[in-house]
Amino acid sequence: MRILSGIQPSGQLHLGNYFGAIYNWVRLQNKGEECFFFLADLHAQTVPYEAATRPGIILELAATLMACGIDPHKSVLFVQSQVPAHTQLSWILSCLAPFGELERMVQFKEKSEAAPHAVNVGLFTYPILQAADVLLYRPDMVPVGIDQAQHLELTRTLAHKFNNRFCPADAPLFKEPKTLHSTTIKVLGLDGQRKMSKSFNNYIGLTEPEDVLWEKLRHAATDPARVKRTDPGNPDICNVFSWHKLFSPIEVQEDRAAGCRSAAIGCIDCKKTLFTHMNALLAPIREKYHVLMQRPDDIRDALEAGAKRARGVADATMETVYKLVGGL
Ligand code: ADP
Ligand code: TRP
User: Fold this and answer.
1) CA distances from residue 143 to 20, 37, 76 in whole angstroms, order as listed
2) Is 0.90 topped by the overall pTM?
3) What are the domain boundaries of the chain?
4) Which of 161, 198, 272, 288 is catalytic?
5) 198 labelled catalytic
6) What is the pLDDT of residue 30?
7) Is 161 a catalytic residue?
8) Closest Cα to residue 104, out of 154, 138, 56?
């Protein structure tokens, strides 16, 4: 099977990204699937950003992905803007994309309503570029978080439209890929209310230093009904407990849940246990990340090698596309 996915270099990767997307990427790669993963730096230009800090953010994201287990020898890991075919196909698809359908995109509505005076055309055509990212490589599956499902739906619509319009019936060019969601659909943030997100500043970063990690956990929202240490708590409505389910072995979860319900333990005790198990997963990622970041040129080389392999596939698709659409 061929797998493809992308993630924007717009800040530090957090637990939501890890369980919602990256964990699945690593799993698929290690199952031996043919994987293409890229850093969507062009998509990240649709919201205001500081150009001077972008190269550093790209390298940090690449190093974090590698530290999480993405191996550039096993997967094709690259930066979107280093493969010009993405923007080339994006134009062709934009001439097939229904305007009304783009207007209905939830992410566009949310982002444009959040900043009504800063709506640029790129934010509107964002899903078309995403469709191009995908279709160029003709993957079977695209592992993403649930919020990307609508964009993948449009991707299939555009594949279908292109095939219908330009290809012989028995030789469609594009595949309509399946969307693959992780079992963890949504990780909530430190506030225990909204999804963990860079935009809400309620996240735990994957490479956060140990002391910062503990500080964040210490203040994280728990069962809102439990006011005093002596009150019994309810793990079913406690966000910290939902994190235990991601990090702690089942017997630890059961022990902490029972202690919470009987008020034998307080929230801080429960958080200390969580910290131990969370840190057991994050410490090796953090360490590997720092080792990788000491050799930024090696990261650049790995990304350049990835881009070269990606261009091989993407340029071949574009050659066919230009013929099919009536180029000379
Ligand atoms: P952010 O909201 O922090 O900007 P992105 O939108 O860049 O995160 O998300 C990158 C990937 O991680 C997407 O596939 C998205 O669905 C997934 N993802 C992001 N936040 C979460 C979350 N809190 N829970 C589960 N998956 C998430
Ligand atoms: N829009 C995706 C996100 O915000 C990132 C992305 C860009 C992507 N192009 C893609 C994901 C292609 C999967 C396939 O998370």
Assistant:
1) 9, 10, 15
2) yes
3) 2-187+296-324, 210-289
4) 198
5) yes
6) 98
7) no
8) 154
Here the tokens at position 142 are 């695209």
Ligand 1 pocket by Cβ (under 6 Å): 7-8, 16-17, 20-21, 144-145, 147-148, 186-187, 195-199
In angstroms, the Cα distances linking 166 to 90, 101, 173 are 16, 21, 9
Q: Residue 302 contacts by C-beta under 8 Å, 6 or more apart in sequence?
A: 62, 66, 72, 77
CA-nearest residue, atom 13 of ligand 1:
145
Domain 2-187+296-324 sits in CATH at 3.40.50.620
CA distance 302 to 90: 26
Decide if domain 210-289 falls under CATH 1.10.1740.10: no
The residue with tokens 């097939």 is 96
CA distance 241 to 253: 8
Dihedral angle, C-alpha 79, 203, 16, 198, nearest 10 °: -40
Q: How many angstroms separate the CA atoms of 328 and 33, rounded?
A: 36
Q: Tokens standing for 221?
A: 């929202």
pLDDT tens digits along 298-320: 999 999 999 999 999 999 999 99
Q: Is 195 part of the annotated catalytic residue set?
A: yes
Q: Mind listing the pLDDT tens digit for each residue in 65-118? A: 999 999 999 999 999 999 999 999 999 999 999 999 999 999 999 989 988 888
Query: Which residues 6+ apart lie within 8 Å of 243 measured at CB?
Result: 15, 187, 274, 278
Q: Which atom of ligand 2 is nearest to the CA of 43?
A: 7
Q: 179 has which bridge partners?
A: 142
Cα angle for residues 8, 310, 312 (degrees, 5° grid):
155
Ligand closest to the CA atom of residue 46: 2
Q: Which of 140, 175, 198, 155 is nearest to 20 (CA)?
A: 198
pLDDT at 162: 98
